[in-house]
Structures are given as structure tokens and as C-alpha cells.
Amino acid sequence: MSHGLRCWNSSGSIILDITDRITRLYGTYTVSFTYPTLNGFVSVSGLDPSNGWAVYAASTEILVWMVSGGFNWEAFDTTGPASVQVTVLRF
After folding, report:
1. What is the largest CA-CA distance in the chain?
2. ∠ at Cα 84 (59, 79), nearest 5°?
3. I need a surface site. Which of 5, 30, 36, 84 has the fewest CB within 10 A?
4. pLDDT of residue 20
5. Mean pLDDT value across residues 35-55
């Protein structure tokens, strides 16, 4: 039996496949935005993008990517205030 994490998008394609290591939830973060502030940085203690981390948002409203010490985000929705959950995993 495999261990790990697999995530699929709405069309059935695998978007995250971490099955060679045990993955643990490091934290969830709420990103809230209102036009005109459509980007930002969230600090995550110890996050190193080159060493076993994953960051994802289960939303099409924002894009997230890892940087040293946290993650950047950029929103695409300019119609009003919104909040999106971002999950950080460590493996």
C-alpha cells in the first residue's frame, strides 16, 4: 500500500503526487484580498523551497508559489473582497 498525497484538479489530472515520503500538514493560512491589493507575501517559519515543501491553494482565484521563508500570492479576482485557504505541507 502506498503512502503520501495525491491531488487531482477538476478535469481529473494529477496536480500533486507525493507518494515516496510521508507528508504532514504544516499549516493552513487564509489569504484575504480586496482590490487594489492583489498580491502579497505570507511568512512561514523555516520554509525552504529546495527542501521538501509544498504549497497549494484549492482555488482558481489566486496563484501561490514558494519563496525562502514563506510564499507569495497573486489574486486574479478584482470584483470584490475574497478569502482563500492556502495549505502548506512538509515531507
Report:
1. 48
2. 85
3. 36
4. 65
5. 91
Nearest-angstrom CA–CA distance, 15 and 41: 23
What value does the mean pLDDT take over residues 66-80? 89
Q: pLDDT tens-digit profile of 14-38?
A: 888 877 667 789 999 999 988 888 9
Q: CA 88, CA 91: separation in Å to the nearest integer?
A: 10
pTM for the structure as a whole:
0.73
What distance in Å separates the CA atoms of residue 4 and residue 9, rounded to the nearest whole number? 17
User: Rounded distance, CA 23 to CA 5, Å?
Assistant: 7
d(CA 63, CA 46): 21
35 to each of 1, 18, 58, 76, how far by Cα in Å?
A: 47, 35, 21, 10
Q: Are 17 and 66 in contact (CB under 8 A)?
A: no
Query: Can you tell me the distance from the alpha carbon of 85 to that of 11, in angstroms, rounded to the nearest whole number?
Result: 21
Q: What is the SS3 assignment for 65?
A: strand
